[in-house]
Amino acid sequence: MQPDLERELIRKCKAGDARFYEPLVRAYEPSGLRLATGMLGNLDDARDALQDAFVKAYEALHRFDLRRPFGPWFFQILRNHCRDMLRSRQARFKLETLDENLELKPADAEKGPERVRQRSAASELLWRALEKVGFEHREILVLKELQGFRYNEIAQILDIPEGTVASRLFHARRALRDALDGMGAEFP
Amino acid sequence: MPGKVTHDDLMRFLDGELSPEEHARVQDAVATSTELAREAAIFRAVKGRFQEISFHPGTYHSSVWDEVNQHLARPIGWILAIAGAAIWAAYGVYVFLVSPVEPWEKLASGAVVIGILALLASVIWERYREWLTDPYRDIQR
Questions:
Q1: A123 to B45: CB separation less than 8 angstroms, yes or no
Q2: Residue B49: pLDDT above 80?
Q3: Is residue B62 part of a domain?
Q4: Does residue B59 contact residue A20 with C-beta atoms inside 8 Å?
Q5: Which residues of chain B are within 8 Å of residue A39 when distances are taken between CB atoms?
Q6: What residues of B are in contact with residue A103 (Cβ under 8 Å)?
Q7: Residue from A27, A25, A24, A51 nearest B67 by CA
Q8: Which residue of A93, A122, A132, B49 could cross-link A179, Cys pair, CB 3.0 to 4.6 Å?
Q9: pLDDT value at A118 more than 90
Q10: Which pLDDT does position A22 carry in this prediction?
Q11: The complex's ipTM?
């Protein structure tokens, strides 16, 4: 979404007109769902978290600084909400429904059933490893690897200094490698 | 001779977060150190694993906008409903007080209404206190 348009929509929402919130919700919904699914491990909880985060963000819009982009601010709210859900035991990182609900890239289907099966097995192994590494490591891995955020954006979302991002990523990746190693994955 | 490459440098190198000069320095170090090259290969492989779970939100997925919109509109609904009920209740009390019925009828009816409201308030208060001390309140039933 164009920054100017985004700013205008937020200005109108701040004035109390909730109709202008819809384009923002629709624009940030796909990446928000991906982020929440990565953090919570299943789509049902991710959807609940996303919904609540959008409501929280709307209620907190009066505090939002219009000079800043909406995305990182919203993702910070969403990440905090996912963490709170896991802490308050309203949700657990659970994988039961992943296979049914997460669609692999469409190109995979064209490469034959064997490739789809391989990819599905690799995917499941990675999700199980992500479950093992814990929330602190998982969140930064999701932000970097699933969402593709730059270090400065990750720093904003996690509310940490930019210089800490590389270090946290190193520890998270090492923890993930150890978890995968423990599950029999092979590395160079 | 390239300078010392830290783990943070290696992460920035793999994620494309270094300046061109820094990138070249780390690349040289990786090319000349077997240990560093092995480490870089392992972390590249870890990164590569995520290619397997890049997913689409799914075609089954419907927007959360309707639910969000319901939440946003709900406070307005509550305010209107409570305000309307309060106006009707006040009007009812006024009509009752100025009606030409006997004073004992007014007293008896008033006592019944106040009694019911007091009982309701005490039940709500008791439930609230129980909820505050419930150790399982965060568990979904």
A1: no
A2: yes
A3: no
A4: no
A5: none
A6: 55-56, 58-59
A7: A51
A8: A132
A9: no
A10: 93
A11: 0.80
pLDDT tens digits for range B76-105: 788 889 999 999 999 998 998 888 888 898
Lowest-confidence segment of A169-178, B3-12, B117-126 by average pLDDT:
B3-12
Please determine, looking at this structure, whether the domain spanning A3-182 carries the CATH number 1.10.1740.10: yes
The verdict on residue B106 lying in a domain is yes
Instruction: Sketch the domain layout of chain A as residue ranges.
Output: 3-182
Mutation for A interface: B5, B19, B55, B60, most A CBs within 10 A: B55
Mean pLDDT of chain B, nearest integer: 86
Domain count across chain B: 2
Structural domain of residue B44, as residue ranges? 7-53
Q: How long is chain A?
A: 188
What's this model's pTM, rounded to 2 decimal places?
Answer: 0.74
Local structure of A61: helix, strand or coil: helix
Q: Residue range A152-181: average pLDDT?
A: 94
- Chain B residues whose CB is inside 8 A of the A31 CB are none
SS3 letters for chain B? CCCCCCHHHHHHHHCCCCCHHHHHHHHHHHHHCHHHHHHHHHHHHHHHHHHHHCCECCCCCCCCHHHHHHHHHHHHHHHHHHHHHHHHHHHHHHHHHHCCCCHHHHHHHHHHHHHHHHHHHHHHHHHHHHHHCCCCCCCCC
Cβ–Cβ below 8 Å for B52 and A55: no
